[in-house]
Fold this protein.
Amino acid sequence: MRFRDEYRDPAAARRLSDAIARTVTRPWTLMEVCGGQTHAIVRFGVDRLLPDGVTLVHGPGCPVCVTPVEYVDQAIAIAGRPGVTLCSFGDMLRVPGSSGDLLGAKARGADVRVVYSPLDAVAVARKEPEREVVFFAVGFETTAPANAMAALQARREFLGNFFMLVSHVRVPPAMEAILDAPGGRIQGFLAAGHVCTVMGFEEYEPIARRFGVPIVVTGFEPVDILEGVYLCVRQLEAGRAEVENQYPRRWRGIGDIPESGLGLAPAYADLDAEGRFGAVPAGTEAVGECISGLVLRGERKPPECPAFGTRCTPERPLGVTMVSSEGACAAYYRYRGAHAAAGAGA
Amino acid sequence: MCLAVPGKVLSVAGDEPILRTGRVDFGGIVKEIHLAYVPEAVPGDYVLVHVGFAITVLDAAEAERVLEALETLEEPAGEAAP
């Protein structure tokens, strides 16, 4: 598709790469927030087009990666109940809970179904009124309107057998947490364009001001990302810390999305799977060999993990960042192999 | 799961704005996509689609203009157009 090929144009990438090299006078560490960007960076070798000293570290990535293990456990427990169908985005099926995953539950006979869209789960509830259908509603801001529409349609159709297990997270607080962490080394952010498609980028302004970090909103193609890096280092070199929009594709307001869309509003409480099947307990993350927590905070790169590519692979993942198709570990494994050199391209 | 994919709107159906859908072509694969969040979308538009919902209309002409701007990026840093 022509629309996409232009964003992979080697000549444009080379021009940007040269512009970045001419701009930087000292080392800078930037974080790309979104796992889709991480994949593009590793797949196309964007990090290898950067001058020494400009380091891209990989951020929280994707909702699949940051969904708390207690929610996965709860989804597995709900799926195991008789008469219940659990619908989920495919990525969630292999995310490890504290013991096992949804795919394992399915193998043991639970009715777990992969859906492409939240409305597909509503359709299941409509077609099979004798079953209780629970949609595992995870996501960042980008997915919130779609999940909210599922709630709205279920309500409009008076579906009494449709529920949602909601674990929705927002990107800006995650960025603040990373910047607040002791020893934080992130000097600038590349933020994801499609989150801003939904939210706009006003939420980033206070973060840029408070922490003195430039935040450049950019896309997912190599040329987008390179231009995002260029704009970010240009700000850093000039001592600026502003929110800047690289994304060439225009976004528009999409109408009323209530802020409460990240959890079910009180009026929709009857759809809450936690109300129907029990609340998700507050828990503690199990600590094992997996360093995905450090990877998600940008403190380690995947190949720095001793288990990477050996005891942890996409077939037998120890942690979410190897499971998710947008996870940083999966990106390195897929595009750089099991023996990817630590710090490659940094 | 968080990825958004561009596609071209082939046709639009549904009278009620909140139930509006369209057939969207993703490089040969055609799917029915929810268009409630892009009331301005018409056949021929490119939309960005995430979990079955179009979340924005892509402006092809604007993308072209930015690509042209990239062509001029030969100038020394600091003077180059963003």
